[in-house]
Amino acid sequence: GAVVSQHPSWVICKSGTSVKIECRSLDFQATTMFWYRQFPKQSLMLMATSNEGSKATYEQGVEKDKFLINHASLTLSTLTVTSAHPEDSSFYICSARDMLTGRDYGYTFGSGTRLTVV
Amino acid sequence: AQTVTQSQPEMSVQEAETVTLSCTYDTSESDYYLFWYKQPPSRQMILVIRQEAYKQQNATENRFSVNFQKAAKSFSLKISDSQLGDAAMYFCAYRRTLMDMRFGAGTRLTVKP
To answer: Which of A25, A82, B2, B67 is most buried (CB neighbours < 10 A)?
Structure first.
């Protein structure tokens, strides 16, 4: 089945530094990647949608200059948290659209990244 | 806007018994998908079951089945013969074709031995 590899699984960084999270589709072409954030004991909230070769579309309230998304190829999308602060500490998870025989079949989730900013 | 509501923050079931998790959603669309995802402590999102809105037949996956009431915009998950490994957070989710997925607040399921 479709697999999305997300790295790193966890990261600790100092306040003010930047962190890059990668999501790779291993056996399919991810034309669209969705990035979610999940705070403890809360649901997944969509941050942004990225289409390969295009600028990402951000949800209201998400700072696009802080959360940089690059989707330069059909198998790789990255989320960079710039100038991270403790309030950015969260669980970040990506989801890729898996097209099967031309029909929208299902989405595959990465395993998530736990970011802690100290 | 599409919203997903899970009114049960926590549920508990005895091992081998049956439990039903509730979900309602709001949409003006006619073509969409509904999902139940399981999130164990590892936080990996695991697809439990999927339902296409155009299908009248309720989806079933082994011990998991849904009761899809399109007119009522209700999508409940029934877990039969509950097992200890079923303990997790369960999220109901809605998605239009080719669009992003929207999640409910989740229900934490505890399975008692």
So the answer is: A25
B16 band by pLDDT with thresholds 50, 70 and 90? very high
- Would you call B97 an interface residue with chain A, using a CB distance cutoff of 8 Å? yes
* Distance of alpha carbon B27 from alpha carbon A107, whole angstroms: 20
Cross-strand bridge partners of residue A4: A25
Nearest-Cα distance to chain B for A42, in Å, is 6
pLDDT band at A2 (very low <50, low <70, confident <90, very high): confident
* Angle A94-A97-A101 from CA coordinates, rounded to 5°: 160
With b meaning 16 or more CB within 10 Å and e meaning fewer, what string describes A73-109? eebbbbbebeebeeebbbbbbbbbbbbeeeeeeebbb
Q: Looking up tokens 């595959």, which residue turns up?
A: A108
User: To the nearest whole number, what is the mean pLDDT of chain B?
Assistant: 94
| Cα separation, A35 vs A23, whole angstroms | 10
User: Which of A6, A10, A2 lies closest to A91, judged by CA?
Assistant: A10
Q: Are the Cβ atoms of B44 and A46 closer than 8 angstroms? A: no
Lowest mean pLDDT among A19-23, A89-93, B54-58, B109-113: B54-58
Beta bridge partners of A94: A35
- Which pLDDT does position A104 carry in this prediction? 54
Amino acid at A1: G
**CA distance to partner chain B, nearest, from residue A64 (Å):** 18
pLDDT of A102 > 90? The answer is no
**From the list B44, B101, B105, which residue is nearest A111 (CB)?**
B44
